[in-house]
Amino acid sequence: MAKKSAINKNERREKLVAKYATKRAELKAKVYDKDLTDEERWMYALQLAALPRNGAKTRLRNRCEVTGRPRGYYRKFKMSRIGLRELGSAGKIPGVVKSSW
């Protein structure tokens, strides 16, 4: 089980990303718009830099929904390899069976 503080920090980041997603996308589009003057683009870049860092999508970390583990994450199941193995072996994930040959 991961530390509660790390899980909570990631949840706070998810809220900030959702809050600033549209504003961040608009500012990024204006920064990369070649039709604007350099001064205007620089002004928009400063506005983008003034937004909270944790509002950027790249600051998010994929974490297992069962244990909170950040490594060995399967996106399809939203859980780590360890949680997937435990629940898959117990037959609690539809369509997943333990292989044997």
Secondary structure layout plus pairing:
Layout: H1 4-31, H2 38-50, E1 73-74, E2 79-80, H3 81-89
Antiparallel strand pairs: 1-2
Helix pairs in contact: 1-2
Features:
single chain, 101 residues, mainly alpha, Helix Hairpins, 30s Ribosomal Protein S14, Chain N, 2 domains, two-stranded antiparallel ribbon, 3 helices, elongated
* Structural class by SSE content: mainly alpha
Write down the Rg: 20 Å
- Mass-distribution shape: elongated
* Helix-strand pattern: HHEEH
What is the CATH first-level class name of the largest domain? Mainly Alpha
Q: How much helix, percentage-wise, in residues?
A: 40-55%
Kindly report the CATH topology of the largest domain: Helix Hairpins
Outline the biggest β-sheet: 2 strands, antiparallel
The strand count comes to 2
H/I helix tally: 3
Main-sheet strand order equals: 1-2
Distance between the termini: 32 Å
> From the 3D coordinates, which CATH architecture of the largest domain would you assign?
Orthogonal Bundle
Q: Per DSSP, what share of the residues sits in E-state strands of 2 or more residues?
A: under 5%
Q: What number is the mean pLDDT? A: 94
User: Which spans have pLDDT < 50 for at least 5 consecutive residues?
Assistant: none
Give the number of domains. 2
